[in-house]
TrEMBL record:
<feature type="compositionally biased region" description="Pro residues">
    <location>
        <begin position="57"/>
        <end position="67"/>
    </location>
</feature>
<feature type="region of interest" description="Disordered">
    <location>
        <begin position="44"/>
        <end position="73"/>
    </location>
</feature>
<dbReference type="InterPro" id="IPR050248">
    <property type="entry name" value="Polysacc_deacetylase_ArnD"/>
</dbReference>
<dbReference type="InterPro" id="IPR002509">
    <property type="entry name" value="NODB_dom"/>
</dbReference>
<dbReference type="InterPro" id="IPR011330">
    <property type="entry name" value="Glyco_hydro/deAcase_b/a-brl"/>
</dbReference>
<protein>
    <submittedName>
        <fullName>Polysaccharide deacetylase family protein</fullName>
    </submittedName>
</protein>
<dbReference type="GO" id="GO:0005975">
    <property type="term" value="P:carbohydrate metabolic process"/>
</dbReference>
<feature type="domain" description="NodB homology">
    <location>
        <begin position="99"/>
        <end position="279"/>
    </location>
</feature>
<dbReference type="InterPro" id="IPR006311">
    <property type="entry name" value="TAT_signal"/>
</dbReference>
<dbReference type="Pfam" id="PF01522">
    <property type="entry name" value="Polysacc_deac_1"/>
</dbReference>
<dbReference type="GO" id="GO:0016810">
    <property type="term" value="F:hydrolase activity, acting on carbon-nitrogen (but not peptide) bonds"/>
</dbReference>
Amino acid sequence: MADTGTSGPTRRAALTLLGAAGLAVLGADGALHGTAHADRVRQAANAGRPAQHLKPTPTPKPSPVATPRPASWTQERLTLVKAPIRDIFKDVSPPAPPNSIALTIDDGPHPTWTPQVLDVLAEFEVHATFFQIGEQIQEWPKLTRRVVAAGHQICNHTQTHPIPFDHVRGKRLRKEVIEPFHRVADVTGVVPTLFRAPGGAWSKPSLELIAEHGMLPVDWAVDPTDWSRPGVGHIRRTMLSAKAGNVLLCHDGGGDRSQTVAALRAVIPKLKKRGLNFVAL
């Protein structure tokens, strides 16, 4: 995957306007993001517990908890966002607490790897941000609820993960953005406020569409290319290059993620020992 995020002069101003409604307040390790977010987590937890069996079964759908848009959210303001978030100090307002980094997990849920990633995060008391695919959520809804019940942020990563995403237009684009938006809400009771384009391939229509639905675009600053299975050592070394403010990219779906699980188990305690605090976006 290539990192295609760019900077723009209006980005910080736009995020300042959108931040209050579109992005949860960032907190330190293990901290939930305010009363509203905690209520959403409790609601999702009450709707479903961690699955004891991997095969999905019919489950009740909780009512989504939407964050109302302020009256000041004009179309002009919604479309000001031109570039995705890569740094949680520079690209969001208010910025994250000092020494914070954000771990993001893409392409799940997966019945084998998502539980293993969740176990590692629980072991080290770290909260992360999961960008999940609509089709995967449909097949494994209990796993998605388990992610939310554990206090992690759940976000939109398209319906089918089309590549290249920046070539998707029209009705197909709306389907890829809007269907998983509603699916996350139906399954968890949480309305997603963040969106990640597959491969970081953004386009003006996609940025405008996600803004219209109250979501902010998120990229990454550290990419160990774990999706390509380059080896635990490569993944570990790349992630250990992370600095305060960085958004880190990993995967719990799309293939064998045993290398990712092993690398996370080694990297998280080392980064914490350096004084870095993991926050969910």
